[in-house]
Design goal:
Elements (H helix, E strand, L loop, with lengths): L4 E12 L6 E6 L5 E8 L2 E8 L2 E13 L4 E2 L5 E13 L9 E12 L3 E8 L2 E8 L5 E7 L1 E3 L5 E4 L6 E2 L2 E2 L11 E4 L8 E2 L3 E4 L5 E7 L7 E7 L2 E6 L3 E7 L4 E7 L4 E3 L7 E7 L10 H5 L14 E4 L19 H14 L3 E4 L20 H10 L3 E7 H5 L2 H11 L3 E5 L6 H16 L3 E4 L8 H4 L3 E4 L17 H5 L21 E2 L13 E2 L2 H10 L4 E4 L3 H5 L2 H9 L6 E8 L3 E8 L2 E8 L4 E6 L8 E8 L10 E7 L5 E6 L4 E8 L1
Parallel strand pairs: 26-27, 26-34, 27-28, 28-29, 29-30, 30-31, 32-33
Antiparallel strand pairs: 1-7, 2-3, 3-4, 4-5, 5-6, 5-11, 7-8, 8-9, 9-10, 10-25, 11-24, 12-21, 13-16, 13-18, 14-15, 17-20, 18-19, 19-25, 20-21, 22-23, 35-36, 36-37, 37-42, 38-41, 39-40, 39-42
Length: 665
């Protein structure tokens, strides 16, 4: 894998200002369509954003309040302004493309008082961050981040329901697995907070996706609308007292400090990111979060092996036609390993249950499992073992756990139950990623908030949950609409980075036939929809969630999804409308894959495959069967030449999808 960074162009300009100056500074993106205006005066620091002359963010104040009363942004006085233009190429070891053009203009402003701000303008958005210039530790009591949205547009917001904590709702205690509400900003004034990313409809068909990047040692940000259409940042305060919960595998906060972050003076403060799209499909391939993240410090990431995972928890360790009782035992896991080896699946996960329950001790393995024996059995068959761990068990002895299991031959950890994004937990994610890299272990941060670019800083941290994934179908309440969610979150949550969605159900149901069955779960929507998700959803470590018994009964579908790559050389959004449909093409080597899904409305789509270029091509297509609207498992596979006009039409059933593999003849 390549890990090189080439500077194609970089220019700098600096100037000093009188300490008393009140300034209006502007920053445009390299194409001149995006303009960020910075206002510095007695009212503080404000910014505004226009796109092609249309205001998309009106004047919005920003500041940082420190312990002791110091406010970065109160009566600010500029000391120096530095501008630069950068045009670089990033070669990510693991991503949805093999190279990223990083082209932006930057404005850095130093203020009296030992702080500064950096602003960047890209052709598809802007970002800003505060910078500590002194190098000394400081405490952040609060941050003012605001987004003044003109008019009364609608927004797609996911509100953390606030789990109960000691009998009271705690808005910051969340699994980050919430669906989206679509409503005007004026109706969102009840004090509830929304998770990032948040999507706002803007003038002229534009969309604004607000999120954050390079979140390393600082709490995650939420948004609240409590003043017209001004969205304001909200952060969880630093935890003071914790109580262990859920079999001792996680901790809930009992009380909090009067501040949100303790900073060492060296860790960067996060970027506040505003992605601007002219159409919905552009959101399917936005790289801003990755580009803004701290680059990896290493050069050799050949040990990072993305791939598929045969997973047992979703299907409840169920197997049919075997002569042993299935469960957390050697016989069951050997069966999963044999299945993975036969299908070319890179990993098997041992989810919750392999370590003694209630101890939060990852060195205490249940007696039903010979873990070193299973690791060796898998290795002999070319399969790696990944272990599940509750965050507290992992955190309490992180280095020894990683050293021990790396030496045994385990390939990684899926870490769960973080369920918070205060400063402590965000930095836990960082430390876990750092430790994984030290011992060359893959890290899958399940049970956590959205990614903010940590996968660039530590390429071995390959996946993140923070999504209303397929596991929700095991306990879905009446009215849960996963089909609509599936054609919504790729335009919002996936802007932040990869998702541990865990698709691959072979039991599929229409809207009328779906029901919750915990031990034998099913998906909403068609079989082809599940298959298309392996192309549409970005997921370098991608689960096959169903039982091997179901996969072995469906060899055509299984062989196809087992062969779909999990990282890519090129990504091309083809079409999409938030909440209605999505279509994406991705290339690995010379082979193209196309995936599409619709909502509950049936849809016929014409795919423009002109990007294939010259030559003759053949497409292997899985499409919804004629009766998929009544029996969601119905599908049709066909192999046909790609027409010379490069147009293919496919019908999708309600809740349906299609997937195709295109190769040159």
């Amino acid at each position: 894998m390549k890990k090189k960074l080439f500077f194609l162009f970089s220019a700098f300009a600096a100037c000093a200002f009188p300490a008393s100056a009140r300034q209006h500074l502007s920053l445009a993106d390299p194409a001149g369509r995006m303009t960020l205006d910075l206002y510095v005066g007695t009212s503080g620091i404000e910014y505004a954003l226009t796109h092609d002359g249309t205001t998309v963010i009106d004047r919005s104040p920003v500041s940082l309040t420190l312990a002791g009363g110091t406010v970065w942004g109160a009566d600010p006085k500029i000391e120096r302004v530095v501008r630069r233009s950068v045009d670089t190429v990033i070669f990510p070891p693991v991503y949805r493309k093999d190279r990223i053009r990083d082209r932006f203009n930057e404005l850095s402003v130093d203020f009296e008082g030992g702080y500064g701000m950096v602003f960047r303008a890209y052709e598809d958005g802007v970002a800003y961050r505060f910078v500590a210039r002194g190098g000394s530790p400081f405490v952040v009591e609060s941050e003012q981040a605001s987004f003044n949205i003109p008019g009364d547009p609608c927004a797609y917001a996911a509100y953390p329901k606030g789990r109960m904590n000691n009998g009271a709702p705690d808005p910051f205690y969340s699994s980050f697995q919430n669906t989206y509400t679509h409503r005007p900003l004026s109706e969102w004034n009840d004090g509830t907070i929304a998770m990032l990313p948040l999507l706002v409809e803007s003038a002229g068909g534009r969309k604004l996706c607000i999120t954050e990047a390079d979140l390393i040692d600082y709490p995650g940000m939420y948004l609240r609308n409590d003043a017209g259409n001004v969205l304001r940042g909200v952060h969880a305060a630093y935890p003071k007292e914790l109580r262990r919960q859920t079999r001792g595998l996680k901790c809930v906060v009992q009380s909090r400090e009067p501040y949100i972050a303790r900073m060492d003076g060296r860790s960067p403060l996060p970027w506040r990111v505003i992605v601007v799209s002219e159409n919905d499909a552009q959101l399917l391939d936005n790289d801003m979060v990755y580009k803004l993240a701290t680059p990896a410090s290493g050069s050799d990431y050949s040990w990072v092996r993305p791939g598929k995972v045969a997973w047992e928890w979703w299907n409840n360790w169920n197997l049919r036609g075997v002569d042993f009782e299935t469960g957390v035992n050697d016989d069951t896991y050997k069966y999963y390993i044999d299945f993975a080896a036969a299908k070319g699946i890179e990993y098997v996960i041992l989810d919750e249950g392999w370590a003694v329950e209630g101890e939060a001790d990852l060195f205490r393995v249940v007696p039903e499992i010979d873990l070193p024996g299973l690791v060796n059995y898998a290795a002999e068959r070319g399969v790696g073992i990944i272990l599940w761990a509750g965050y507290y068990a992992f955190d309490r002895d992180m280095e020894n756990v990683c050293r021990h299991y790396a030496a045994m031959g385990v390939k990684g950890f899926k870490i769960d139950f973080m369920d918070r994004d205060d400063q402590y937990m965000i930095h836990f994610n960082y430390r876990a990623a750092q430790m994984g890299e030290k011992y060359r272990l893959l890290i899958d941060l399940h049970g956590t908030s959205k990614p903010t670019g940590l996968q660039r800083t530590f390429p071995g941290t390959v996946n993140f949950e923070g999504v209303h994934g397929l596991e929700e179908m095991k306990w879905a309440k009446e009215g849960t609409d996963q089909v609509t969610y599936d054609v919504t979150f790729p335009f919002i949550r996936m802007v932040a980075g990869p998702v541990d969605y865990t698709q691959g159900a072979m039991r599929n149901a229409t809207k009328e036939n779906f029901r919750t069955v915990y031990t034998e779960p099913m998906s909403q929507g068609t079989r082809c929809r599940q298959m298309a998700q392996y192309v549409i959803f970005e997921s370098p470590l991608n689960m096959l969630c169903d039982t091997p018994s179901n996969y072995l009964r469906e060899p055509e579908c299984t062989d196809f999804i087992a062969a779909v790559p999990t990282c890519w050389d090129e990504t091309r959004p083809l079409a999409g409308e938030v909440g209605h449909y999505v279509a994406v093409a991705r290339r690995r080597g010379t082979v193209w894959y196309v995936g599409a899904m619709t909502g509950w409305e049936p849809r016929e789509m014409e795919f423009d495959l002109s990007f294939l270029g010259a030559g003759d091509f053949r497409a292997e297509i899985f499409r919804d069967g004629v009766n998929a609207g009544k029996a969601a498992q119905d599908y049709r596979r066909e192999v046909l030449p790609v027409p010379a006009d490069r147009k293919l039409r496919v019908k999708m059933a309600p809740g349906g999808g299609t997937v195709m593999k295109i190769v040159k003849k």
